[in-house]
């Protein structure tokens, strides 16, 4: 198969992964075009915070120095940004006492939306372009979109999320199907002043109720210095608060409405002997209009497959390896993948 040298690489998906690949290709002088289904960077909910570990080195090698230098500035908790070791606590949610306490290696816990903004700098994103399919030609690949347009490129690099259309086309719908996990998950971003945030004040903590198995992950999302409220009359902090538990066979699904999700979260906090009083009181203060997300947890068991479409189509990020968030690794795997394909 011949390839037309002046054609660009076509990237589908302008999330963190697609944008990192775009920056890497730009740094190497390789032509590319990047397409995104959304209308803009802030057109829909952009997530909470992510931990960057081994991905920092690949990011440093593909980003211009002025962009890489911005990453430490979006650390969700500036007070711990420069520490060699970062405290982490695992609580007994019945008593509120630490079951385990440790210090982890230094890493960056960064605001996801702000990281995407950094990665998008200098990149010409084609918005409102929902990917619908591709076809391989003698000299490359033709990519089609929902608005009826087509573009031609040398390679399609699809970072189109866990429900990847490109993956389904590569290996068939059955092989590409995700594996549903029997885990319920409710997540929200809590906002409040310093007094309200006291039960959530640690940089990052986790915990489990010993009797019910309900699990909590809580992490800073922003301080007044990061969110711009410092010095104002309404300084606020934000935390990422995630609750999950193994679903019982006879358990009702999480309600679809927002108030129902909040009620379910409070119900689980009181189940059995309940959470320790300070945390339970803080959760009782969550109002029904606080946006709560019910996230369906899925993964995709690793499969062996032949190189498809003449090697002209590849998938990366959640399209290639959707996984749960409990190990804090997914973003690092994804952000480092540009080295393998660029």
From TrEMBL:
What keywords tag this UniProt record?
Answer: FAD, Flavoprotein, Monooxygenase, Oxidoreductase
UniProt keyword Cytoplasm, yes or no: no
Cofactor needs: FAD
Q: Name one Pfam family in it.
A: NAD_binding_8
Query: InterPro entries under this entry?
Result: FAD/NAD-bd_sf
Q: Which Gene3D superfamilies match?
A: FAD/NAD(P)-binding domain
Q: Which organism is it from?
A: Coccidioides immitis RMSCC 3703
For this UniProt entry, the molecular function terms from Gene Ontology, in alphabetical order, are: monooxygenase activity
The protein, known as: FAD-binding domain-containing protein
């Amino acid at each position: 198969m011949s390839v037309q040298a002046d054609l660009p690489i076509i990237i589908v998906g302008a999330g963190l992964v697609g944008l990192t690949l775009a920056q890497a290709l730009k740094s190497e002088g390789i032509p590319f075009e990047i397409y995104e289904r959304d209308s803009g960077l802030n057109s829909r909910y952009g997530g909470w915070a992510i931990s960057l570990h081994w991905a920092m080195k690949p990011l440093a090698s593909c980003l211009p120095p002025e962009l890489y230098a911005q990453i430490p500035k979006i650390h969700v908790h500036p007070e711990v940004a420069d520490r060699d070791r970062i405290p982490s606590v695992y609580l007994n949610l019945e008593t509120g006492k630490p079951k385990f306490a440790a210090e982890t290696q230094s890493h960056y816990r960064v605001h996801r939306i702000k990281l995407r903004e950094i990665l998008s700098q200098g990149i010409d994103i084609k918005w409102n372009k929902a990917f619908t399919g591709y076809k391989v030609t003698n000299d490359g690949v033709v990519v089609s979109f929902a608005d009826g347009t087509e573009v031609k490129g040398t390679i399609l690099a699809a970072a189109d999320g866990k429900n990847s259309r490109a993956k389904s086309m590569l290996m068939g719908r059955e092989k590409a199907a995700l594996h549903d996990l029997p885990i319920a998950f409710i997540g929200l971003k809590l906002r409040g002043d310093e007094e309200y945030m006291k039960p959530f004040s640690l940089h990052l903590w986790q915990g489990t109720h010993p009797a019910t198995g309900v699990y909590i992950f809580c992490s800073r999302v922003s301080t007044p210095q990061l969110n711009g409220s410092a010095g104002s009359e309404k300084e606020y902090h934000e935390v990422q608060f995630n609750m999950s538990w193994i679903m019982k066979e006879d358990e009702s699904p999480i309600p679809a409405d927002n108030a129902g999700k909040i009620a379910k979260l409070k119900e689980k906090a009181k189940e059995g002997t309940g959470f320790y009083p300070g945390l339970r009181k803080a959760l009782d203060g969550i109002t029904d209009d606080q946006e709560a997300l019910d996230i369906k947890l899925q993964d995709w068991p690793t499969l062996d497959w032949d190189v498809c479409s003449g090697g002209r189509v590849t998938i990366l990020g959640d399209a290639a390896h959707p996984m749960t968030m409990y190990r804090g690794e997914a973003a690092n795997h994804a952000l480092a993948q540009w080295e393998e394909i660029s």
